[in-house]
Write a structure and sequence with these properties.
The chain is an alpha+beta fold. It has one domain (13-189): Gcn5-related N-acetyltransferase (GNAT) (Aminopeptidase), CATH 3.40.630. It has 6 helices and 7 strands, in the order βαααβββαβαββα. The chain has a 7-stranded mixed beta sheet, with helices on both faces.
């Protein structure tokens, strides 16, 4: 990797900012996809209107201006600049060099095409090379097998299993905490 390596652009996707005109309608549509919502969030799924999605995005952007302990990106296709998902670093602890990572591909037609893998690779490079973080944590429901596979393939290791921490459809599920250290990422990135 050289100083000229793009931080926010891969072969398939680009990490970008919120588009307040176009993104709310797309985010609203994703919120009606209960499968996606249950994979991404621990809270109960709830559909949002376009107005509600716009308000949430505005609140998010305002909080990012005030809180320097998070980085939120929107994943867009390179070809059409179409919003397909999001990638986030949250709860950044600068003194400890740690953060939590989340990634979601909301556009169903773009899942399992390598966009999530590339977006995660870009986010990891940004976290470890640009922000100089030491470790990242991902919290994933035990039933989210695609996410578990993706994070494991990028070098994350299961560190904690919070038994029966989540209830969905009258069943208890474990929450898994996966971790990745900068040294492990560097070794895998070669």
């Amino acid at each position: 990797m050289s100083i000229d390596t793009p931080l926010f652009e891969g072969r398939l996707v680009r990490l970008g900012t919120i588009d307040h005109e176009k993104d709310p309608a797309i985010v609203s549509a994703w919120s009606h996809d209960t499968g996606f919502m249950r994979m991404m969030y621990l809270e109960p799924a709830r559909p949002l209107s376009t107005w509600q999605a716009k308000k949430k995005l505005e609140e998010l952007e305002k909080s990012l201006e005030e809180d320097k302990n998070a980085c939120h990106f929107r994943i867009r296709t390179l070809a059409e600049e179409r919003l397909i998902g999001f990638a986030e670093l949250t709860w950044i602890s600068w003194s400890n060099g740690s953060a939590f990572v989340r990634l979601g591909i909301g556009a169903p037609e773009e899942r399992r095409k390598g966009c999530g893998r590339e977006a995660l690779a870009l986010l990891l490079r940004y976290a470890f090379s640009e922000l100089n973080l030491h470790r990242l944590t991902a919290v994933i429901q035990e039933y989210n097998l695609p996410a578990i596979g993706l994070f494991k393939s990028c070098g994350f290791t299961e560190e904690v299993r919070r038994r029966q921490a989540l209830e969905r459809d009258s069943r208890r599920w474990d929450l898994l905490h996966f971790g990745l250290l900068a040294a492990e990422w560097k070794e895998n990135a070669r």
